[in-house]
Amino acid sequence: MTAGCHDPPTQFDTGAPMTEPTAAAPARRSFVKATLAAVAAGPVLTGGPAAAAAAAAAVERDAVPFHGPHQAGVTTPAQRFAAFLAAEVTAPDRPALEQLMRSLTDRIRFLTAGGTPAPAAAGEPPSDTCLLGTDVPADGLTVTVGVGASLFDDRFGLAAARPLRLTPMPAFPGDDLGPELHGDLSLQVCADNRDTVLHALRDLTRHTRGALRPLWRIDGFQNPARPDGAQRNLQGFKDGIANPDTGSDRVMDSLVWVAADGGEPAWAAGGTYQVLRIIRMRVEPWDALPVADQERIVGRHRDSGAPLGGTAEQDGPAYGKDPSGAVIALDAHIRLANPRTAATADSRILRRGYNYDRGVDGTGDLDMGLVFCCYQQDVARQFEAVQQRLNGEPLAAFLAPTGGGYFFVLPGVPDESGWLGSGLLGTA
Q1: Which of 127, 163, 285, 314 has its CA 20 to 30 A from that of 378?
Q2: Residue boundaries of the structural domains of the chain
Q3: Residues 308-317: pLDDT tens digits?
């Protein structure tokens, strides 16, 4: 028997759990903690192969718990790297769809916990790519699974179980939508290192081949805080400062999680609506603007992230003392997105945005921007209400939304016996 990088792939149609975490996972996490502590406590060595190896070592966090009432990756603190993938379900019938969801659950359960892949018979193809070595680290990995409106057509008999507010994403004014649009199922894969994201993507697509066909994918990254606070987007401004408090169950229950008594099908309780928008930034004309013009359009100081007239990133905009927009213009992005009034309090969204960079286009312009991802209880009440307020804003001249979709993130898996979508597929 051979192990790890030499194992065979577990085929989609076996129905058996793929691999299980081993004792190596806790040991590795302890090693990582010790390594991080040593790095924090001591100076960085310079010169020589040992120093180069130390500098290249991955920085990894512990496993993010997979089991619970909600899927991880929504309120989880954002990891450095992400991939968003939309796919068509090609499973021929409902039992095959159930097997697909069970297989996804088995793989995600293993990958997010980390461990050593199971051994395989000699001469068989490997079950793991060995991209992460012989021992798969947890690395803060989360995989968040959503379903699109198209899954609820007549293929699987699920029309009556469709989440109440799940529709295809419409085109909004200013959109330039291309082929990266919609999908039966979405995967949001996030981790602290890019190779962990790629490893998970390859594993998941490999073990679901024949039942799931990828349609489009976009990769994202979070910039390190400079000098501190929120990350900066590719327009140079701090991004996602005014997010709702993910540590408050009351806030999350009122803005993010779908409740059993909200008119939704019973199986949907504990899920949430995901909006994905691929937003290209027209960085060349943006970079040609004076900083004062950029700040007026956004409504924040570029250097500190503070609202205009404020001094600190977390200062609240003083709209009440500025009714005419003398300090923060009435059409500034932050003022339209979140006017901070009693009437708009329940339209707040939970953002989880990532920057992207895809090189240059055919005209030689830089193709970069934002993978805008947000979560909410009600797309119309929240995202679309914000979108309507932003219609025609000055910032829109420097943005070109090109794709994305609406998805419903399935409720979580409570324990080892559960699987993603069990409530949905258990409906009549």
Answers
A1: 314
A2: 13-37+60-266+409-425, 281-406
A3: 999 999 999 9
